[in-house]
Amino acid sequence: MLLRRRPFLLTATGAAFGSALPRFAIAQSDQRPSITVAVQKLANSNTLEPLRESSNVGTRLMASYVETLTMQDWLGDLSLRPGLATAWRRVDDRTLEVSLRPGVRFHDGRTMTAEDVVFSFGAERMGRDTAPSANLFGSVPTNRQDKAAPPEVAAIARRAFPGLAKVEIVDPSTVRFVFDRPTPAIEGRFAQNAGMIVSQAAFEAAPSWLDWARKPVGTGPYAVEEFRPDQSLTLVAHDAYWGGRPPLARIRFVEVPEISSRLNMLASGEAQFACDVPPDLISEVERNPRQQVVGGLIMNMRLSVFDKTNPVLRDARVRRALTHSIDRQGIVDALWGGRTSIPRGEQFEFYGEMYQQDWEAPKFDLAEARRLLKEANYKGEPIPYRLLNNYYTGQVATAQILVEGWRQAGLNVRIETRENFPQVLAKEGARGIWDWSNSAGFNDPSASMPNAHGPQGQQWQVGAWQNEEFGKLCEVLNGSVDTAERRRAFRRMLEIAEREDPAYTVLHQTVNFTAKLKELPWRAGQSFGMDFRARNWKA
Predict the structure, then answer these.
(1) What are the strands, taking DSSP E only, across 271-356?
(2) What distance in Å separates the CA atoms of residue 459 and residue 303, rounded to the nearest whole number?
(3) Could you tell me which residues are beta bridge partners of residue 85?
């Protein structure tokens, strides 16, 4: 039986309409509106540093205060567009040169230089011991332990830029990136969150790494004014923004875990946006004629992830049985009203020629699941399922459907509620199954598959799943520019991770819905990121 949500307010009178109007803060010298955005969570790591806060919730905030050299067009055709780089060219299969946008101002008033770009990929910021033009990864400099980044920072950088060996200044407006291997989709890698450009001077002036990470200085349309972990983030307009004067004076993101509370804030006028709306509430939200829900499919998908070191899940047949006991279409229909779809494995159509059109997610087949369990001599041993309380939209309801399907197959899956991801991933106790999602930051499978499940990926790094052949294929996917060879490698990776030795199983593509006041001229993109630049706030 699905859990019932607490009801939220549905304003229906003229007086209520008045209270639902945005409470804009207007200064004498600034007639631009200010908005409040109610979010489920602000940051998993309680920092704003893109190299640490690599998450869905962090992505929602980042584009407002930091930017990358190249940018995916999440509001349009998903193509690669100029960002802080106006142009780029491949010198060869290992080398990319970028032309920097002139006159870009950081939030501290400094003009962005080639030195800032080199620094952003260098040892001091990313927790490595050598100069930016040398080996990319290493230990923290012993004389700067006050700025030592957590080990997760280097791990995230390794996933994002495998093989990046040197970053060099060609001239004041040109930077060269040199990889130690042929690198496919090289331009797209610099559109990832890990490639955000920051102010070297501001980093060096910060008293500690944590002070920096809670108030990073970038080039985005809004600057960090105040960050209160687990409570709120306030951004203020950066009027020297290269892309034009921002349309808002301030943006305040407020952490409100319960969807009913977020929607009450929208209805009462406390907030102008409420994020992560489940589809079953869309019609109720829109009963208020002043409100609307926007959004749709994004380049992210929901997964169930396995720990094959668990004594029960060590047998691949049990994990295969789990994948065949999931009624994916039932989840799509019951919880999403048919608004999403079941992906063809862990891949997206915008991969283009790398997309495996004839691949399918495991078939819902309880008979096959029972056959596999019998063959594996499974005796009903309990399998732990570590569950967060709706970190993902509809997470608890999805878990109830999953557990019921597994029960029908004869699997004894037991939910263990956890408060955060560190508790989910902790080695204490027996890990078994947990919820996850995976995004593609650019249009190639190297953007997602190796980063999630390869040797540098989180699942591998926490000791939950490793496969030697898969690891070698990651090197092919990341280090070959032969399309046919890469297609064969990617196909084999899908076969291993989704069929033979399951690391995970896909559930559905993610749909991201945001409730807002109808009068506000903002569009949702194909990413968790919320774009509040002038181009996306048209009067």
Answers:
(1) 273-275, 291-306
(2) 12
(3) 100
